[in-house]
User: Fold this.
Amino acid sequence: MSWVQQTPSSERSASNPFSKSLPTEFDGHLIRRVFDEATKTWWFSVIDVVQVLAQQPDSQTARKYWNKPKERLSK
Assistant:
């Protein structure tokens, strides 16, 4: 698993609860995620997860794959 350098805590905004961003690697693909300090919860990018699970070649295809069902649910 590879990690990217995170923003030093002195540069993080106190008003942004999602200031701890640590992308992670899953099955050879980068998954964006952020940590909510207040609730001690990790939040993952749905687009990145869909891209890996649906074996999509790029994020645009994964975005379209996700947006269509999302659009149908909002009707």
